[in-house]
Design goal:
Layout: H1 2-24, H2 32-42, E1 44-62, E2 69-84, E3 87-92, E4 105-111, E5 114-120, H3 123-170
Antiparallel strand pairs: 1-2, 1-4, 2-3, 4-5
Length: about 170
Amino acid sequence: MPESSLVRSIVGLLFAGLLFYAAFAFGPDESKADRLESLRSSGEQRPGTVTALREVERTRRTGGRRSRRSEEYTVTCPEVTFRLRGTKHTFVEYDDCDRLAVGDEVTVLVDPESPYEARLDSAEVDDAADSSRRTTWILAGGGVLFAVGSLIGLALRISRFRARRAGQAVG
């Protein structure tokens, strides 16, 4: 029976590592929230115009544990055009869909040194960035809980082993 507690602790540590990996290793070096914060602090605001709408397929999971299903749906995301230093730039904003129409005037946050780093200045983009940050910290927090629990289990296992060994050495 003592072997099962060791196996549980090792599996817990592996699962903690998996949660940390999922929280911090996917995607680019900076999170979506960090990039948006950087654009707000050191970027420029530019007027932009929605010049087209792109249909994007997305998947939503519904139901509970027993009746989980996936359903596909379509959103229309704005293609936004803006000018920076006399040059026209275009990007698609995938975090603010189904809200804007062609011809709508919008505010664009752009990195003046890298115009391809542009986002809409909108509450929907803020919400998506906050959601990304929350997910990262929830996964990391789960990893910490599993790591601490597993390490406590290993420490208890080691102390019981030492106590048994000390009892055998005396007898």
